[in-house]
Specification:
The chain contains 7 helices and 17 strands. By secondary structure, the chain is an alpha+beta fold. The strands form 5 sheets. It has a 6-stranded mixed β-sheet with strand order 5-3-15-14-13-12. A 5-stranded mixed β-sheet has the order 1-2-6-9-4, covered by helices on one side. It starts with 12 loop residues before the first strand and ends with a helix.
Length: 342
């Protein structure tokens, strides 16, 4: 049984730490690999990324597998949350072995941050090592195949998608080959997720979903958004993050290709994308449980296409699951509140 989430890739678990109230509107999300790790890669296309340990994922370099990936709020400050994840992994002897003692490990924990500073009202309220530890503990305590909470949780707590509230979304698909491909996204884009003429979500237009919002609903939504924009002032820095995963047995180079083509899924759902004030980053994870057909050199294509598709669906789900925010740091209406009634 699948739950249409990243956790449909057997062995992967997801944990959120959410920080709200008293000036806080941020959090951290951890994707925990099975013991022994997962093949990993990354593709960074935004002009303003905040990342950690991404160079280690280059297929030319030493590290073969990672035990966890961290997605976090707090911009570059929030990358401190990865330290809490590293400590948790070290306590369990999980990481790159660097000495004769099994406890001598260095966990390589790639991380990427979204910009959400000040959205709760306090610019200094951002994730740290304790937030990362809380998120990885939540992941470690979850059962395999657990549904993943979406919306304003974890790294999506303070996320904004264009002019509407963003958040966490996830989706999965099982291919005819039996291989699973899934994605988890933090939708926090500088570009818009909505067609300006109608209010329809770009990601849903590509899926052929109708009907469009009514003219009356769209005009009312535009009035509310104009009021919010006037109150919030200039748009801040943003970033869309994603983890796309599969249970296929693919190489690090193939995983890097998967991370790259998964960016197409962002481009279908957000316009414009990969701007200088975005830090758009996609990680790819492969658990290696299912072999690819070696006699078919193009067998990877189905995984690449599915990776982009699930990223688009995850962005749509993130936006639809988000809840409105109206606080000291700004006001961001939720898409469902604006357009849910069509």
């Amino acid at each position: 049984m699948t739950v249409d989430a990243l956790t449909d890739v057997a062995g992967l678990r997801v944990g959120h730490a959410t920080c709200t109230g008293d000036g806080w509107l941020t959090g951290t999300t951890v994707v925990l690999a099975p013991p022994g790790g997962a093949t990993a890669a990354v593709d960074v296309r935004g002009g303003g990324p905040g990342t950690k340990e991404t160079d280690a994922l280059d297929p030319r370099n030493l590290v073969q597998k990672v035990e966890a990936v961290v997605l976090t709020g707090g911009s570059a400050y929030g990358l401190d949350s990865a330290s809490g994840v590293m400590a948790w992994l070290e306590e369990r002897g999980r990481g790159v072995r660097v000495g004769p003692d099994p406890a001598h490990v260095v966990p390589v924990v790639p991380a990427a941050a979204v910009f959400d500073l000040g959205r709760g009202g306090d610019f200094r309220a951002r994730p740290d090592a304790s937030t990362g530890r809380a998120a990885v503990e939540a992941a470690g305590a979850s059962e395999p195949g657990t549904p993943v909470r979406e919306g304003c949780v974890g790294a999506g707590t303070g996320a904004v998608a264009g002019t509407v509230k963003g958040g966490i979304g996830t989706a999965s698909v099982v291919l005819d080959s039996g291989i699973t491909v899934a994605a988890l996204v933090v939708a926090n884009a500088a570009g818009s997720v909505m067609q300006p003429e109608t209010g329809a979500l770009y990601g849903e237009l590509l899926q052929g979903r109708t009907p469009y919002p009514s003219v009356e609903v769209h005009e009312a939504a535009q009035r509310r958004l104009a009021e919010a924009i006037a109150r919030n002032g200039a748009p801040p820095l943003n970033t869309t993050l994603a983890v796309v995963a599969t249970d296929a047995d693919i190489s690090r180079a193939q995983a890097q290709k998967l991370a790259g083509t998964a960016h197409d899924g962002i481009a279908r759902a957000v316009r414009p994308v990969h701007l200088l004030n975005d830090g758009d980053t996609v990680f790819a994870l492969a658990t290696g449980a299912r072999p690819l057909a070696d006699e078919h050199p193009l067998a990877l294509n189905a995984i690449l296409a599915a990776g982009a598709d699930v990223v688009t669906r995850a962005i749509v789900r993130a936006v639809r699951a988000a809840e409105s925010v109206d606080g000291a740091g700004g006001v961001w209406p939720a898409y469902e509140e604006l357009y849910g009634g069509r």
